[in-house]
Amino acid sequence: xxxxxxxxxxxxxxxxxxxxxxxxxxxxxxxxxxxxxxxxxxxxxxxxxxxxxxxxxxxxxxxxxxxxxxxxxxxxxxxxxxxxxxxxxxxxxxxxxxxxxxxxxxxxxxxxxxxxxxxxxxxxxxxxxxxxxxxxxxxxxxxxxxxxxxxxxxxxxxxxxxxxxxxxxxxxxxxxxxxxxxxxxxxxxxxxxxxxxxxxxxxxxxxxxxxxxxxxxxxxxxxxxxxxxxxxxxxxxxxxxxxxxxxxxxxxxxxxxxxxxxxxxxxxxxxxxxxxxxxxxxxxxxxxxxxxxxxxxxxxxxxxxxxxxxxxxxxxxxxxxxxxxxxxxxxxxxxxxxxxxxxxxxxxxxxxxxxxxxxxxxxxxxxxxxxxxxxxxxxxxxxxxxxxxxxxxxxxxxxxxxxxxxxxxxxxxxxxxxxxxxxxxxxxxxxxxxxxxxxxxxxxxxxxxxxxxxxxxxxxxxxxxxxxxxxxxxxxxxxxxxxxxxxxxxxxxxxxxxxxxxxxxxxxxxxxxxxxxxxxxxxxxxxxxxxxxxxxxxxxxxxxxxxxxxxxxxxxxxxxxxxxxxxxxxxxxxxxxxxxxxxxxxxxxxxxxxxxxxxxxxxxxxxxxx
Length: 610
Prior knowledge:
- By secondary structure, the chain is α/β, with parallel strands linked by helices.
- α8 (263-271) runs parallel beside α9 (323-333).
- Keywords: Glycosidase, Hydrolase.
- Residues 16-334 form the Glycoside hydrolase 35 catalytic domain.
């Protein structure tokens, strides 16, 4: 039987108490959604061996409610209750961070994309401003409450505190919204303790805290804790996100955060007995289509995140103790009365012996289009969300009755489009800026129209737009980031007459596991881009492995129907992580969908991200 514990705040706001005694929170953040369930225990033990006594857990709402009202807390790595119980079994406390908004470099910051079907939706606001959003939030929290309540420390569980929203002061000032979320938990019988997370300046300016709640500081350190204590003397302050690395976007020159050294910061936090959370101690992987994006505040450029969430964290993407890990472990151990447990052995990697795979052409997307949507839905092309699709690809098709060439303008496409005339690839558009040589080689435009090849025949031709939705923006005021065609499509002919193109066929391609499993192995036109390739990897034993996609262009990889995520030759990531539990002894099916490649290239099997 688990023993009930009382986690509380010192009366003078001086710190945290556990059963009435001073308690330093030493937390490492990791996300169950980014870690195969088979590795949860290993990663928790790794955090404990570095000196942590707690795990901070983001819950990505859209991972558990991908479509309205359909919750899944059971399949794969979605059993959040099991993860929290595993933390307790391993002697770790938990900081619970359920949002509803989490940021986390995760698609739409964890908010479900189905909300974007409302043209005038407002996110992250109270019910007086948008009842549709807060009604969905209430449904989400009502689903969490019976799962979370037995896991609170007061009921014998490991959860010390629940965070209300996330970094809201960086978004707006709306105390009513934060209080409405807090009351949803209270209504369910969970009365706290609660806390909020924000930058020091933001929490001071926008008062983004809650009644009787602790305050956690983003990018926090000892000096910021001391400054915040003077501003808010009645509640405890902790460094809620201490960054050991940083996020990386597609097109960055290198993986970010490698030069960060927290040694001095950690030493001071430990010396002054301040509570802290390392964001992240282990990042894992944004498998599938869940990696998010940013918009540069200065340039307005869209910046999609890479698939790996290694983050240059102390525990690497594949669970290895890095040099940072060993350095930080030594610093923390100096201040502890008892020795730390041994560092767990790393997970075995595949015995590779410089092995490569050469996939074979398997199928064409053009031979695997589903039925088009009813004509009434497609007079004007709409974003994915208006058709009920969360992620993947969509083909927008328009028959041009008298095609002679011209200039095609598809507006601010979200986020990457390949354009075909009569089955011939003629160029495309990328919302994200690409290196000039890569863009020119594929005739990819960035925020400019595409010149189409001339035709003297004046005959009918079919225009196909194969559009990929990449990560939705997860931070800032541009989060309402619908995917696909978001502007009218126009064609200016050679005489200068511009026509708005209406009356489309639309084919939804979510590229989920069932779609990949049911692919028809037909390729009637092998010279038309949009091909699937397949390889078989035969194994005697399994282990972790990376697939090196550096000889490919842009696409997605599945292993035994598990989506490893996106690759893109603009880098800096060129390798995709495949965890051992997704492999099996015997034959394993590797499926590649590449937007541009028409000839297969080798895929090297390697043991590390870099």
